[in-house]
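Anyone able to model this chain together with sodium ion?
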Amino acid sequence: GEGAEILPRPAVVTVMGHVDHGKTSLLDALRQTSVAAKEAGGITQHLGAFVVVMPSGAAITFLDTPGHAAFSAMRARGAAVTDIVILVVAADDGVMPQTLEAMSHAKAANVPIVVAINKCDKPAADPERVKLQLASEGLLLEEMGGDVQVVQVSAIKKTGLDSLEDSLLLQAEMMDLKARIDGPAQAYVVEARLDRGRGPLATAIVKAGTLVSGQHVVVGSEWGRIRAIRDTVGKLTEKATPAMPVEIEGLKGLPMAGDDIIVVDSEERARMLSEGRKKK
Ligand code: GTP
Ligand code: NA
Ligand code: MG
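re: yes, here you go
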């Protein structure tokens, strides 16, 4: 036909780093800058993802630490939804084993890193030492002639957040992120949980195409028909477009983080594909 329309899409950013270095705190601080979160009036969100809309109108999708296992699962399928990793390193603690693990995950998945040196408010903070440690681990920092951006932040004092968002946007611009909007969705699960009333729920991110309510889907080895799609603030929506996290309802079983979502044309086909995958 006329050729599917390819349009710019938001960057999908995952926060990684050593235990207690402030990943969740940093996300909470960033979330507060989110227009959507403000509109939701501080209602506790179950969705492990949110979108920050910049004053310029540009958007960034943040994924709440899905854990290294989920990241690895997505990488193993060659289908990382993550465009950029924020590597959080506490300015007092410095580089620790899980910092290195996160670095190697990102490298293996070929995902660029933006470093956030966190807890810069602490008296024992030593960001220069952290930079040297990272450099000695082979990270090519911008200020040393490489291309990895480093930002100093405090999730608690909420400093450096604008710089971090700017760095992410700059990184995203260099990547020229685009996606096909029309046609069947190719999507991935980033998180799944069982809700007593609503059954299996999956947080999904569409990589290409559009996911539409009512469609029959195969999700990993599970199947179902999408009964409802909700955005990051819990609002019902008819469709999900690339890089916008959504929660989908209507699956027969609980999928796993990293599972792919494919759209099929009938319940019979969905059931058959799912059975085939379960045998493997
Ligand atoms: P895990 O998910 O358990 O790996 O931890 P995390 O990386 O998500 O760290 P979390 O946000 O839970 O923060 C760990 C501790 O560090 C908490 O007590 C936070 O209050 C504290 N913390 C986080 N960010 C900052 C910061 O910028 N400054 C200071 N002083 N404390 C911080
Ligand atoms: Na913690
Ligand atoms: Mg955490």
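The CA atoms of residues 136 and 235 lie 46 Å apart.
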